[in-house]
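SEQUENCE-TO-STRUCTURE ENTRY
===========================

Subject: a protein chain together with a token-level encoding of how that chain folds.

Sequence line: the amino acid chain in single-letter code, read from start to end.

Question of interest: how does this chain fold, as expressed in backbone structure tokens?
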Amino acid sequence: SGAARALAAQLDKINVERRELQARMEAEARRHVDALRVGLDDEHADAYCLFDAGWHEGVVGLVASRVKDQVNRPIVAFANADERGMLKGSARSVEGIHIRDVIDAVAAHHPGLVPKFGGHAMAAGLSLRAADLERFRTAFETEVSRFAGVLAEPGVIWTDGVLTADDTQIELAEELSGAGPWGQGFPEPLFENRLELVDCKLLKDRHLKLRVCHPGDSRILDAIAFNQAELPELGPDASLRLVYRLDVNEFRNRRTAQLVVEHMQSD
């Protein structure tokens, strides 16, 4: 019916806005990480504590998870929670670092610093007074260093493997879309493929819209890479290695498969 189509269009608009917000926050988080790395002898610190006044508390968990995957370090990301000077934080960790125990150690060594927290080995949530952010940052990084030992170098990306040309179509995209919700302990699948670039263009000055295809297959696939406009210009017939999520894109009442690119490398 018309009402159902209108509701579906509204939900799709909300979902697009949420993804754009998440992508913007992820890009800002990476800039914060880069700023914190200035002056470090090593390429990365043992952990990162991130905050931006413009971030939304409902998305900091996803941002922390994505940045953690990119730098392979424990991440805690904070957003303003209310007008009383409180922050809401979401932490994500890597193998070998029990993040709830890290925050528990911070609270034990600094009584009153962390008013409220909870979680498990790989994820935790906490509240913090904004005035205590720098104090918490120092304590958090210190405790992670105690727990850490030697952390693996960044750059290792774990995926669920490659998809065939037949797999990267709307049928599997619909199945995956209905298999959620995804979350901690049940992450959304990430796939990888070497694909041929057909063409690409810039959207809103910061996103790359690509059309790609499997080698030897003429079917065109749509792909979107949020906040990756800084990549060098790609010529036609380039070979790309993509790490992506297989999603459903709805446009003008037509549903098609879309690759949401998390990492992209030119071969």
User: Anything to note?
Assistant: Residues 2-148 form a domain with the Diaminopimelate Epimerase; Chain A, domain 1 fold (CATH 3.10.310.30). The chain has two domains: 2-148, 170-266. The mean pLDDT is 83. The first strand starts at residue 48 and ends at 51.
